[in-house]
Amino acid sequence: MRKALGLFAFLGFTLFLLAATMSLRPFGAPPHTEMDHYFITHAQEQASANNVVTSIVFDYRGFDTLGEATVLFTAVAGVLMVLRRKEVSS
Amino acid sequence: MTTTIIKTTTRILASLILVFGAYIILHGHLTPGGGFQGGAVFASGLALLIVACEDEIVKKRFEKVPLSPLESIGALGFLGTALLGLMGYTFFKNVIANSGFIFGGKTPIGINPGYLNTGGTLAYMNIFVGMKVLAGLTSIVLIFFLLLGGKKDEW
Description:
The complex is a heterodimer of chains A (90) and B (155).
Chain A: H1 2-22, H2 34-47, H3 52-60, H4 62-83
Helix pairs in contact in A: 2-3, 3-4
Chain B: H1 4-26, H2 35-51, H3 55-62, H4 67-83, H5 121-148
Helix pairs in contact in B: 1-2, 2-5, 4-5
């Protein structure tokens, strides 16, 4: 009974994945490209950087990077707090 | 743990890795990479220096390195650079770009070889984030090495 149920679930999931793969868009053709074109054409004059990725990470999506830095800070602080001993000072 | 091979390789490679990390951080607004990636490369070079030496030498060498202040300076500097945008504009506004300050040179539009003196606040944020990442990762590696590296019997 359990094996039949597992086989049924396996086949159903496989068919679902295959159907989802069939309906994927072709490589390199996302549905919405307005934002990308805006970044690529305007990043140099608005953020004044040749590297568009950096201008997105630090200018357009600055808050995201702020949260990322906070996550790293919290992780380091937690590790140091848990593992700190008297003789280690860093 | 620290064989002659590792020591010799470290003597040749460590300085090159550190220079490469600093290059990635400083050129974050021109070439692929940036603060996070360059900081990780720099921290890996420092991790090589940590792993290749004995316990006491590492302790003596890294005693004077201000890792915690570097981490704090990185976080606060990043926030402060973002707050600079409040001088008449919004948070995270690139106020230093095209202003003539350091890293504030005139940015050429279109295809150009890439000039280091551009980028505005992006370059400063890259430097601060790189400082922060290298201090954080290095302190994690250092504390793991100092706490767990010496006791071989437990592992």
